[in-house]
User: Which sequence fits this backbone?
């Protein structure tokens, strides 16, 4: 296995992932650097070994922070989090393709970029709605926008597990699907 295919899962000091969505991962280089800077403890290792003429070590597959980082109470308003809240689908037609932001109250009419005013929309629906209000356009969102909690995003994210899950991560992640070996 090449080092590039060996990211390390990052756990907080309480052994919970720092983030599920996106999953808190470090590249193998950052994980090794964090070990040497004594910022993390190695919890589990890959069989892949790196080294120099005078040193060898197995790459970390799971690391825990030495200092606890208090989790955010409210999720940040980001493109990823908005799409996650809206289950990566257009709130007008349900398409998962070519997603954009749509302001229910258009910005041209004073609409703000907030959780309560923005939904995921595919480009064709966004263009069709344009600068109209939802009722004017005859386009009401499937789910009215809301500010999600961290728990809401984690619940939604369980439907979208990452493509790569190493077996050493199984004890720290809780998805409803089978984890790949």
Assistant:
């Amino acid at each position: 296995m090449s080092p590039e295919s060996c990211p390390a899962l990052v756990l907080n000091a309480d052994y919970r992932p720092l983030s599920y969505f996106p999953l808190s991962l470090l590249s193998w280089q950052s994980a090794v650097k964090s070990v040497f800077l004594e910022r993390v403890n190695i919890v589990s290792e890959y069989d892949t070994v790196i080294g120099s003429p005078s040193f060898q070590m197995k790459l970390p597959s799971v690391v825990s922070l030495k200092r606890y980082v208090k989790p955010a109470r409210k999720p940040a308003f980001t493109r990823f989090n908005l799409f996650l809240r809206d289950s990566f689908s257009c709130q007008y037609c349900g398409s998962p393709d070519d997603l954009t932001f749509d302001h229910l109250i258009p910005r041209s009419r004073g609409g703000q970029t907030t959780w309560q005013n923005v939904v995921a929309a595919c480009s064709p629906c966004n263009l069709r709605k344009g600068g109209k209000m939802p009722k004017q356009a005859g386009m009401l969102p499937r789910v009215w926008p809301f500010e999600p909690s961290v728990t809401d995003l984690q619940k939604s994210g369980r439907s979208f597990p990452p493509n790569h899950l190493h077996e050493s991560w199984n004890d720290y992640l809780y998805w409803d699907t089978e984890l790949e070996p």
Notes: The first helix runs from residue 28 to 36. Strands lie at 8-11, 25-26, 40-52, 55-65, 99-103, 118-122.
